[in-house]
Amino acid sequence: MTLQEDTKLLSVHNLGCIRGGRPVIENISFDLPGGKALVVTGPNGIGKSSLLRTLAGLIKAHAGSMTLEGAEDDLSVGQQAHYFGHADAIKPALSCRENLKFWQTYYGHPTRSPYQAMIEVGIEDLIDLPAAYLSAGQRRRLSLARLLVSYRPLWLLDEPTSALDKASEHKLEVLMAEHLIEGGLIIAATHAPLGLVDPLRLHLDRNLASEPALDDALSEPTAH
Ligand SMILES: Nc1ncnc2c1ncn2[C@@H]1O[C@H](COP(=O)(O)OP(=O)(O)OP(=O)(O)O)[C@@H](O)[C@H]1O
């Protein structure tokens, strides 16, 4: 495949990780170009979250390699990724604005003000409220706003619609579409349809734990 100068490409080759002393993902290989999403599916406990956490650099890969070319090549994949996991990365004693300012300072590459990001997720009225006062869905939306205050090309989304109402789910669809149009990449682990247009798909299956199936991929899985 020929890469345009500004085209990003995430390449994952034979990735594996160990948790609790046993391998939970093995031999995961795929290519994901900028502008595309990869939807990861599979039964509970198969390793979807572990895959995302490994890509985010939160779990050490015990095998394989991953690179993200075309962005900041000197940074690791995790350093170029926003990780939106089950736990909301929110400090309850800080206001919503202070939480977003903290993350923007930490991540760098500012794209929107905290207030603009809060408008995007529809909770701008709560911007000066301590995050401890937010409902579960509001916390989730604040967590989502964290992705909007700083640019990172790769979004790693673990069950991103959990606790979101229908309007927020729709907003998430729009935000994901915008990120892809701008050449970003998304990997989403999900049990729910996410409204992504024509995503690549990786289904992890218990019987195929060492041979994940990647449909419609740029490169065939190379499980050995
Ligand atoms: N902190 C941990 N220590 C040890 N083992 C863990 C840990 N977290 C998860 N596991 C194990 O790793 C395996 C994969 O878990 P993971 O959370 O990645 O699955 P999942 O596909 O995301 O599941 P779900 O659909 O339920 O969210 C499971 O067998 C789980 O028991």
TrEMBL record:
GO BP annotations listed: cytochrome complex assembly
Domain ABC transporter, chain residue ranges per copy: 7-224
Protein's UniProt keywords contain Transport: yes
Keywords: ATP-binding, Cytochrome c-type biogenesis, Membrane, Nucleotide-binding, Translocase, Transport
Pfam family for this entry, one: ABC_tran
Coiled coil ranges: none
PROSITE patterns referenced in this protein's UniProt entry, alphabetically: ABC_TRANSPORTER_1, ABC_TRANSPORTER_2
Keyword hit for Transferase: no
GO-annotated molecular function: ATP binding; ATP hydrolysis activity; transmembrane transporter activity
Entry-linked InterPro entries: AAA+_ATPase, ABC_transporter-like_ATP-bd, ABC_transporter-like_CS, ABC_transptr_haem_export_CcmA, P-loop_NTPase
Family (UniProt): Belongs to the ABC transporter superfamily.
Protein's name according to its UniProt entry: Heme exporter protein A
UniProt source species: Cohaesibacter marisflavi
